[in-house]
Amino acid sequence: MNIKEMQMEDIEKRSLEIEEEMSKEDADIDSLTAEVGELENRKAEILAEVEQRKKEMEEALKSSKEVEVLPTEERKNTMDKEFRNSKEYIDAFAEYVKGDDREMRKLLSEHASGTVEIPEYVADRIRTDWDRLPILSRVRKVNIKGDYTVQYEQSATGAVKHTEGDEEHPAEETLVLGSVKFVAEYWKKWIKVSDTVLALRGEAFLDYLLSEFEHQLGLALENAIVAEIIASPLAAQVTNPIDNTAVMAAFAQLSDEAANPVVIISKANYAAIMNERTTAGAKIEDPFNGLEVLFNNTVTGMLVGDLNGVEVNFPDGYDFKYIIDNTTYAEHDLVKIVGKVMAAMHLVQPNGFAVVSAS
């Protein structure tokens, strides 16, 4: 190798070889000595180049402006969020929902990302609307792919005192476990729209879909949660008139884990109980004993319990999926749009709720 092309590692290697060659009887000392001189010169050149580069870097750093650099993951998340909020992405997502993925595929390839995610403003709007719903906002929400089982403690013997030195040890705990299986299903709503609606672009089209679907699907989920509580074998069943004594009759059946109980009742039954306060012999300051009252008109009796004991799984996330059907009503110049969300819900806390029925 030409000495002018050598790097430090090459120079060190050749220097060791020369040292060995010089120890031989037939060594060409003059030639080897001259080569050592050339190697030293090349080493000095390399060191000078390193020093020059260091000076240039120092000068560049002095002249550059300070720039705040986010950690890699945070920077990536910020860039992804900005990307999903861009007009180009929102327009492409709207066309993707309609069934045309060409704009989205082009945009994702340019952004080096293969995953289609809902625009940030859509996710925020869904969360905001659902957070306003009194029942859906209080349940425990998870995102677990596929079916799964949650175990709960059906019964167990309690702890007992054991005096030091007592030869008789406490009996082993008797624990009985139960389980609830979560199998997600779709909740759907569909509408017929004119071709004019499909002609809407970007945010205008997505806003139209959200106004049609987000609230109604949220209400459908609330009704499903209520139906699950009523049908759950983990809920205590109480027979009592739906009057000012019902809340306490239900409250008495709740487990200690039901830490933040609420009352779920129809507006008609709520009005009847409130009117009952003023009748003779029933002048009660608060027939709900300070518990927060939530309204759901599918409840025929009364539910009392802690909604944190209800688990709702959204395996595909909280965003809705849409199906665009251009053929079924084509002769009427109408398009069918189906909005759907996949979820599974169960009461997982024994006696986390009490269901009051008049008979």
List the helices and strands and how they pair.
Elements: H1 8-22, H2 29-63, H3 72-85, H4 87-98, H5 102-110, H6 120-132, E1 140-142, E2 148-156, E3 175-182, E4 185-194, H7 195-198, H8 202-231, E5 236-239, H9 246-251, E6 262-265, H10 267-276, E7 292-295, E8 302-305, E9 310-313, E10 321-325, E11 334-347, E12 353-357
Helix pairs in contact: 1-2, 4-5, 4-8, 6-8
Question: Low-confidence parts lasting 5 or more residues at pLDDT below 50?
Answer: 63-71
Beta fraction? 15-25%
Instruction: Give the mean pLDDT.
Output: 81
Largest sheet: 5 strands, mixed
Q: In terms of quaternary structure, what is this? A: single chain
Number of domains: 3
State the gist of this model.
This protein has 359 residues and is of the alpha/beta class.
Name a few traits of the molecule:
5-stranded mixed sheet, 359 residues, 10 helices, elongated, 41% helix, 3 domains, alpha/beta
Structure description:
The protein is 41% helix and 21% strand. It contains ten helices and twelve strands. Strands 1, 4, 9, 10 and 11 form a five-stranded mixed β-sheet that branches. The chain has a five-stranded mixed β-sheet with strand order 5-12-8-6-7. A hairpin with an 8-residue loop joins β10 and β11 (334-347). α4 packs antiparallel against α5 and α6 (120-132) runs parallel beside α8 (202-231). The N and C termini lie far apart (100 Å).
